[in-house]
């Protein structure tokens, strides 16, 4: 492996910052107490629409994983670097905004949410921390925020969708914080969930043949929740190797 | 660390390849293992990039990559499933029967269980026996991470219901010797000859020498 000296110094500097961030990772999680919520989309064979889904207590990363944190992971696990990751695990846009395998675009990028990461890469990162991606239920339950400010959250989401992507994502410290103390669930990047592929999309659903696109409105707990529809249909459209500039992640425990 | 020069690498590879026949004569393949796999990295799109170790119906630890070298007809199922999983299994058996006998011996039929809780090896043995699966079949138990990784890699939708049932999509795959998806069938009523022909075409002529020993 060869780096220019300056690149090496930049990378080393970012590593130090990232290691410091990793060391407090556990403190950077927020406990989410057990409860229940009504998912936007209910799986009909399990429960009827409008029934609550129980969620056990868990802990969720306070903020989306940053570029600096992900760089520290890639340096410890170079098989996840841009030039070495197998096509099975990430498409060719993987980490495309980085300057090189082990170098971010610039120093400020370290504080921004990492994007252009695949599900495989996100889950590998979380497992390396002894964590996992949150399930869709966990993620949605955290967003539900015990019912606090539901209308405001929905408006915030729609406003976000309506805004063209900013050239640069905000630093994670600038993201809005919800009632649990979790920041940036919406407003900056979409996030992977462990079971993003749990919704049957396409023609090969087993059972009664309800398909997401056509049948969703029947199963939707609130057909006026366009923001919810957007989230669920986005997840259903993903493949595990996809990477995009507005899709990041955080981990759960 | 300085990487081996490509010359040294080639010399090493050649030495290993030359050593292989002796090795395979000296040591019969271990259960669940193929003839020694080549040392080269698997192709980028190969599902053998997943490094999970599954457990076979005979309790043998089975790294996914140990399937390398065989043409594999595979699906994800679970044994409590009462409708489409038995149909999937039967469709794979029709593929097996549709293959020429000589080539059939060189294809492995693999069922990956998506039920990481209930489908322990004994349960898989019972399923194999109930469905009269031939000795070319391997049924594999994996942990949640292995199952989620494989379903993600194969593009199979998966939802574990609170009662332990699964909602899942369906497909039968033909994998080439390097673990790349060579063909996919999502229609269980499709003629078995289509996938059988695909598997047959992938099987090398010399397959009888490398036949898999259960």
Q: Could you characterize the architecture of this molecule?
A:
The complex is a heterodimer of chains A (253) and B (214). Chain A is mainly α and 253 residues long. Chain A has seven helices and six strands. In chain A, helix 1 crosses helix 2. The longest helix of chain A has 19 residues. Chain B has a single domain, classed as Glutaredoxin (3-Layer(aba) Sandwich). Chain B has six helices and nine strands. In chain B, helix 4 links the parallel strand 4 and strand 5. In chain B, helix 2 packs across helix 6. The chains are: A mainly alpha (253), B alpha+beta (214). The interface between A and B is medium-sized, with 26 and 30 residues.
Quick overview:
The complex is a heterodimer of chains A (about 250) and B (about 210). Chain A has about 250 residues and is mostly helical.
Strand order of the biggest β-sheet of chain A? 1-4
**Most extensive interface, chain pair and sizes:** A-B, 26 and 30 residues
Helical content class of chain A: 25-40%
Alpha plus pi helix count of chain A: 7
Fold blueprint:
The complex is a heterodimer of chains A (253) and B (214).
Chain A: H1 5-23, E1 29-32, E2 35-37, E3 53-55, E4 58-61, H2 67-76, H3 119-128, H4 136-144, H5 150-162, E5 190-191, H6 212-219, H7 226-237, E6 247-248
Parallel strand pairs in A: 5-6
Antiparallel strand pairs in A: 1-4, 2-3
Helix pairs in contact in A: 1-2
Chain B: H1 6-26, E1 53-56, E2 61-63, E3 71-77, H2 84-98, H3 101-104, E4 107-113, H4 121-130, E5 137-141, H5 144-154, E6 158-160, E7 166-168, E8 172-175, E9 181-185, H6 192-202
Helix pairs in contact in B: 2-6
List keywords for this structure.
heterodimer; A: 253 residues; mainly alpha; paralog of FGE (formylglycine-generating enzyme); two-stranded antiparallel ribbon; two-stranded antiparallel sheet; 7 helices; 6 strands; B: 214 residues; Glutaredoxin; seven-stranded mixed sheet; 6 helices; 34% helix; disordered N terminus
């Amino acid at each position: 492996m060869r780096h220019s000296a300056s690149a090496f110094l930049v990378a080393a500097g970012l590593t130090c910052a990232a290691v410091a961030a990793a060391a407090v990772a556990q403190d950077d999680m927020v406990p989410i107490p057990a409860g229940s919520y009504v998912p936007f989309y209910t799986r009909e064979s399990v429960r009827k629409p409008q029934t609550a889904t129980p969620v056990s207590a868990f802990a969720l990363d306070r903020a989306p994983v940053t570029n600096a944190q992900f760089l520290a992971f890639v340096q410890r696990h170079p098989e996840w670097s841009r030039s070495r990751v197998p096509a099975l695990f990430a498409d060719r846009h993987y980490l495309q905004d980085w300057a090189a395998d082990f170098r971010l675009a610039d120093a400020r990028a370290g504080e921004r949410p990492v994007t252009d990461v695949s599900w495989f890469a996100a889950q590998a990162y979380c497992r390396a921390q002894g964590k996992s991606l949150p399930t869709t239920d966990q993620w949605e339950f955290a967003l539900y925020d015990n019912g606090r400010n539901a209308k405001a959250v929905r408006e915030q989401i729609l406003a976000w969708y309506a805004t063209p992507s900013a050239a640069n994502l905000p630093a994670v410290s600038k993201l809005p914080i919800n009632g649990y103390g979790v920041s940036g669930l919406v407003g900056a990047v979409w996030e992977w969930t462990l079971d993003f592929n749990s919704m049957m999309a396409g023609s090969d659903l087993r059972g009664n043949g309800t398909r997401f696109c056509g049948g969703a409105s029947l199963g939707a707990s609130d057909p006026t929740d366009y923001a919810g529809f957007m989230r669920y249909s986005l997840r259903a459209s993903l493949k595990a190797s996809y990477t995009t500039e507005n899709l990041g992640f955080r981990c759960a425990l | 660390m300085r990487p081996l020069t490509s010359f040294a690498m080639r010399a090493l590879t050649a030495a290993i390849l030359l050593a292989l026949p002796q090795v395979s004569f000296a040591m019969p393949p271990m259960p669940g293992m193929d003839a020694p796999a080549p040392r080269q990295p698997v192709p980028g799109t190969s599902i053998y990039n997943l490094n999970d170790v599954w457990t076979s119906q005979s309790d043998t630890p089975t790294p996914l990559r140990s399937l390398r070298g065989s043409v594999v007809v595979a699906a994800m199922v679970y044994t409590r499933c009462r409708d489409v999983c038995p149909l999937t299994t039967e469709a794979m058996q029709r593929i097996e029967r549709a293959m020429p006998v000589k080539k059939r011996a060189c294809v492995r039929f693999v069922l990956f269980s998506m039920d990481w809780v209930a489908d322990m090896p004994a349960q898989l043995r019972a399923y194999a026996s109930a469905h009269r699966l031939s000795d070319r079949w391997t049924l594999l138990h994996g942990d949640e991470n292995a199952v989620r990784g494989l379903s993600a890699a194969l593009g199979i939708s998966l939802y574990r219901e609170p009662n332990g049932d699964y909602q899942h999509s369906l497909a039968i795959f033909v994998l080439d010797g390097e673990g790349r998806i060579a063909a996919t069938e999502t229609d269980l009523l499709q003629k078995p000859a289509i996938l059988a022909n695909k598997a047959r075409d992938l099987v090398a002529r010399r397959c009888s020498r490398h036949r898999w020993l259960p």
